[in-house]
């Protein structure tokens, strides 16, 4: 088993106050991580993460320290929630771990 930090978007609820004193709720999505164990036998591919858009790249840079590198793990099998996991760690790191 390989322990990784999966990156996902979590929704946060914020209470705000209007100038007249009434309150309203707004929701914001931020990237965060959770520890995850992955069976190495189900890893099909590992690749450096490529950002889908400038907005996503900016949001991720706000949530993680500068210089943090990410990789995409592609998993095989029908029992997984999704076949691609975005994880913290460089492509080179995963090459060494899985070699």
Helix content range: 10-25%
Principal-axes geometry comes out as elongated
Give the terminus-to-terminus CA distance: 14 Å
Mean pLDDT figure: 89
Walk across the major sheet and give the strand order: 3-4-5
The largest β sheet comes out as:
3 strands, antiparallel
Query: SSE string, helix = H, strand = E?
Result: EEEHEEH
Give the structural class: alpha+beta
Question: What Rg do the Cα atoms give?
Answer: 17 Å
> Could you name the ranges where pLDDT drops below 50 across 5 or more consecutive residues?
none
The count of β-strands is 5
How much strand content do the residues show?
A: over 45%
> Count the helices. How many?
2
Molecular structure report:
The longest helix has 10 residues, at 54-63. The protein is of the alpha+beta class. It has helices spanning 54-63, 91-98; strands at 2-17, 23-38, 43-48, 70-75, 84-88. The chain contains two helices and five strands. The radius of gyration is 17 Å and the shape is elongated. β4 and β5 (84-88) form a beta hairpin.
